[in-house]
Each structure stands twice: as C-alpha cells, then as structure tokens.
Amino acid sequence: xxxxNKPMPNKLFAAIGTVCFVLNxxxxxxxxxxxxxxxxxxxxxxxxxxxxxxxxxxxTYVLKARGGFDPKLNYNLSQKYYGDKLYFSLSDxxxxxxxxxxxxxxxxxxxxxGTYLDPQGLTPTNGLWYGGISANLGNGLLIDERxxxxxxxxxxLKSSQLEQRLALNELLLEAGYAYWDWYSAYHSELILxxxxxxxxxxxxxxxxxxxxxxxxxIDTVEAAIQYQNRAVALAQQQAKxxxxxxxxNRYLWQPDGTPLELSEAAVPIAADTLTTxxxxxxxxxxxxxxxxxxxxxxxxxxxxxVLSIEKRYNIEQLKPQIELxxxxxxxxxxxNPLAQFSINDxxxxxxxxxxxxxRKERAALQQTNLQIEQINLExxxxxxxxxxKMQAARAEYVLALEQLEIYxxxxxxxxxxxxxxxxxxxTGESSLFxxxxxxxxxxxxxxxLIDYQAxxxxxxxxxxxxxxxxVR
Length: 472
Prior knowledge:
Elements: H1 2-5, H2 7-28, E1 30-31, H3 34-44, H4 46-66, E2 72-82, E3 85-98, E4 103-113, E5 128-136, H5 145-212, H6 218-249, E6 266-267, H7 271-276, H8 288-292, H9 295-316, E7 321-330, E8 346-353, H10 359-426, H11 432-466
Parallel strand pairs: 1-6
Antiparallel strand pairs: 2-3, 3-4, 4-5, 5-7, 7-8
Helix pairs in contact: 3-5, 4-5, 5-6, 5-9, 5-11, 9-10, 10-11
C-alpha cells in the first residue's frame, strides 16, 4: 500500500510547488501597462488636478459677473443737530433691481423732517413711497459694463474647457514619453543581462575546453574580453534604467496627493505584446478639418469672441450718456404703499453728459481693433504651424513603422544566423570570433528593435498630442 500511495505526495508537492512559484512570481512582479499608468497620472498628478481647476476658476468669473445684477438694499440717514435743535433728518430706504436690458427697477420710502428742512424735501407724516425705473437711452442702452462682463465670463467658461484639455494632453504627452523611455531601458537591460549570462557560460566552457586541450588558450582571452564588455554595457544600461524609473516617479501620485515611487516589482508591458499587436490606425485624410476643430484654434476663436464683446462695448462708449428716471409717488396708509394711489403723483428727471473729443473712448476702440487683428494673424500662424507639425508627425510615424518592420525581420534573421553559427561551432567548423560576431549582431538587432518599438509609441503619442486627442 505504501508503494502504491508513494507517488501521490510527489504529485501533491509538485502541484504545491507550481502554485507557490506562480504566487511568488506575481508577488515579486506586476505589469504596469501604459493605459493604467496614464489613468494613474490623470487621477493623482498635481498638474492634472491643477488643470481640473481651470473650469472652476471660470465658473467663479461667471458668478462674479452675475453679481453685477444682484438686487441691492440701501439705507441712507442724514441728520443735523445744532443749538438743541433738529435742523433736518433725511431718511431714504430703497431697494434696486438691475435688469439685463439696462433698466433698473427701484422702490423705496423717504421720511424727512426738521425745523429747517428744505421745502422740496418735505414728506407726509407716514413718509413718501416711490417706485419706478431708471433707463439708459444712449450709452448703455445696447450694452453696458455689467452685460459685457457677464458675456465675457461665459465665453471664458467655454474657453476654459479647451484650456483644461490642452493642459491634460501636454501632461500625458510628457508622462507617455517617460513611460516608453522606461520601457526601452528595462527591456534593453533584460537583453544585456541575457547576453552577459551567455557570455559567462561561454567563458567557463571555453576555459574548460582549453584545459582539456580542445581549444587554444587565446580563445579564453577573447571570451573574457567579450564578457567584460558586456558587463560594462549592462552596468551602463542599469544606470539608465534607474534614471528612467526615477523620472517616471514624478508622474506617480495617489489621488490624495501622496507621491508614489515605482516599485522594484513593477515591469512595463511585455515586448512580445508590442511585437504581435496590430499597428494603430492613422488618419490619412485631409488635415484641415482636424485643425479647425483643434483646441488651440478654438481658444483663439474664443479670444476673438471676447474682443468682439469688448468692441461692442467700446462703440457704445462713443454715445452720449442719457439717463431717464421716473418714479410714482404715494403716501403709505397703514403700511400699504398703494393706498390712495394716483398716477398724477410722480417724480421724473433726465440727465445727459458727453465728452467733447472722445479721445479715451476712441483710443480704447482702436486698441481693441488692433488686438483683433493680432489674434487673427496669430490664428493664421498657428494654423500653419499645426498643419506642418501634423504632416511631419504623420510622415515620421509611417516611416518609423516601416523601419520597425525591417528591424523585426533583421532581429529574426540575425538570430537564425547565430543559431546556425552555434551549430557550426559545436561541430568545430566555426571559430569563437565568428560566434561572438554573430551574437553581437543578434543582441544589437534585439536592442534596436526595442528602441524602435518605444520610438513608434512615442511618435504615436506625438501624433495624438498634436490633435489634442490624448484627452478629449
């Protein structure tokens, strides 16, 4: 019975060992994919949070501009006492409501008394209620400062959403470049580690073969030199990988603002994943439509909208200021301001003023026109810049993809040549020099492939950034 049951513990131990190996592997390393990394950047990076504040600031400008239309409650009291006498007491409590069309609604109660009160200020015993409007008939009829500020604030709010998108796209471009630099450094280090291990094994084998007389001792010198060169290259690459990891840390933050450091167990996306993935689809149509929809052009368009509002306001300032006021009057009876109301009791007035030369107003209008011309010229230049950069980025990415395919084939062919040379070396038909040459070519091709994989991803990021489509 023992002999029959003996294999069972071995299988069990083997299964446990396999599970432990898998768990230990996942405990020691995890893959940080570019999508997860970008999401981490958007959720925790201070610049991402700063970009999210841009629309909030714009909302406060809208709220501030709306404050110009807030109703106001006013109370004025003026009294004079002299020689134990009350010369006068002037009291005015009023409530004003500004409206969008330049009209101001108002109502109030005047109570004036005193020994030496001006007769025109006399009010009934219960006071004098008034209610009416004031209107701008010239300057301020079509647009005034309050309406202009609110209109501009609403434009700023729309523009802030594009500015936020531009800021986040720039952040993701920098973070993406850092990720693919880390990817290239990490996988290049793996390749150089493998080359060093192979060099060490070959060095020991050649030394043993030389001791047995199967190889000349000069081969051990060549193998040792090859091993030393690879050790130096690996050390340099490890320093580069550590630098890229440290640079990547500046983009890793927790949502609560705590900075993070890249774990030693973190690894970038596997190189085989990029080798087998389908190339990303590139927009091959005309670029004019992409440029017209670009946030940079949109922001400049909103600047023109703001200047257009400013221009309308400046033109309004060239009109004379004419203000018409009309108030109905009545004595409140038992706190009812409309008791014994008559339309024949009212007070009205008109005021007008106008600068003779309008130099200040004309200068402001000229400045606005010049600013509009500047923005139009800037938009033309920015459009040409975007067109040139997009054309160059698209051509560069297409060329890089073609080169990447060449490097894939080259890496495969150099590996085939290396295997063939190793077979010849094992049968004594090749030299260590030829093996080292083939091996160096194979590892160089593998390193170049990794480098171009990262370059293609960075060029794709650049293409997406120029469209401002990393974040929409």
